[in-house]
Design goal:
It comes from Paracoccus zhejiangensis. The chain is built from 14 helices and 19 strands. It is of the alpha+beta class. Among the domains are: about 110 residues, 2-Layer Sandwich (Beta-Lactamase); about 150 residues, Histidine kinase-like ATPase, C-terminal domain (Heat Shock Protein 90, 2-Layer Sandwich), CATH 3.30.565.
Length: about 600
Amino acid sequence: MTDTGTETPLRNPWWLRIAVALILVTAAGVIWVTNAWLTERFSETTRVRLELRSALYIGNLRSELQRTAVVPLLLARDPALIGSLNGQDFSTTSARLMAAQKEINVASIRLLDASGRVVASTDRALLGGNDLSQPYFVEALRSRETVFTVSKNEAGANEFSYSRAVVAEGKAVGVIAVAADLLRLERSWAGISDAVAVLDSAGTIVLSTEPRWRGLTLPEALSVRSAPNAIDRAFQVTADWTNQPPDAYLRGKAVMQTETRIPFRGWRMVSFATYDSIRERVNAVLALEIMGFAIILAAAFYILSRREREKSVAFMRESADLRALNNRLKAEIAERVRVQRELRVAEQTVQQSSKLAALGEMSAGVSHELNQPLAAMKTYLAGARLLLQRGRGEEALSSFQRIDDLVERMGAITRQLKSFARKGEEAMEPVDLRASVSAALTMMEPQLRSGVIRVSHSIPREKIMVLADRIRLEQVIINLLRNAVDAVKSQRDPMIEIAVGTGSHAYVSVRDNGPGVADLEKLFEPFFTTKKPGEGTGLGLAISSGIVSDFGGRLTAQNNETGGGAVFEVELPLYEPGVRRRMPTPEGGDSVAAE
């Protein structure tokens, strides 16, 4: 069968779906922020360019007006023109004006006599006409200075004229009028800007790239339906949400507007620009971003489709594996029936082996515990023989009494053979922990005297009562002392410290200054020993730990980091009369012991 761990991501690609959703959200956020930032930036750039272009247009306009303003002053002092007015001879005057027009590049030049009749002009169609009521004629005669006027010509377009009275012998004999060619500027503006309008001090449009705006105010001009070729070009703008708030509207369409003051008679120039160039640049960047996110999404969808293909292949493979497994199960069922029959026979063999192993462990434990009193008896017998040889019979009797005690103890140990196999059947009674330590020291006295081991002990005067089996408790303490003696054999200054104390629990600690324990984790395992072969069975600490556990306590070991050596500590619950506490049973449960 296929591995379940490899199928889970195929069945539940939740992280990939979340990744796709995050990509979409991130794309929307990035596009939104990019559009807003770029629109603002490009709009500001377009506005600055529009203002710079307006400043350039204003410069051209002022230059044209200033250049034209000088011409009437020069022509009004021309002797030839003054002579023709005085002599009423205008045969060559028009040609002279045409030459001047070509030289100074103005729109037109007209010479009027004192009655307002056009006597000479660069436009021969105007000869003989009467402009008596025209502002440029009236204002020129009234002020005797060069005056600027705006009037309508025969075509309906605005004409911007500078005029001045021609004076001879203190009398005005005519008026010279020079029209500035501002329409030429309009045409140049129309080829560059979207829309430009020049307003006079009254707010009326006097110049505009849109002919229908002339003579109207700006709000009126913006409400006029423009010709398709002109206004569509000037005010065509996208109306979507991506633009900034517009400055003006034309039939619901947004435009950008800037206004600049012209330092001439209170005039103003208003320029308009569409958002087309802004949107083109912003959309170009947005298109690149969208393309990038589209590539990422395409990769994600490719991974999804690939996973689906892998899932399909996995399902087919799993189906084939299930069919093969079904066939194997049929064969295994028949094999299991045969194995069960053989298992019954094997179980009987294992049970017999377990009995033999348990018997071996018990025999090893009993031999280990009997070795200590036998060694002590051998020492006491040697001492008694020596005392009898020296005639000290009474002292020899004390040695025989100790041997009798050891024989009694050996009998108690053999009686514990059953307890070793079935824990918890010995009688529990209140025991003074100090008396058990003293008895263990007495048992170990021959071994302690045989060497140069310094033994120090700290035992309080007050009784420390615990609920335990006295013989088995002494057995534990003797085992710990025996291990300590073996541990300090190779030390120059062997030392063993025994401490008995109480707190929340009663405790006995045995500390030595030996080499310590290398493997604390395996220390209480059966048959684990650090001694040389033949010197130990590896059961002493395992048995001791089991006995202490039967008493409701625990046996711990640790290395002494400050002075070296090992520290073994037996911790037992204090005896409290009238209190019932739970004791472990051989079956692994708890039994209630009365205190």
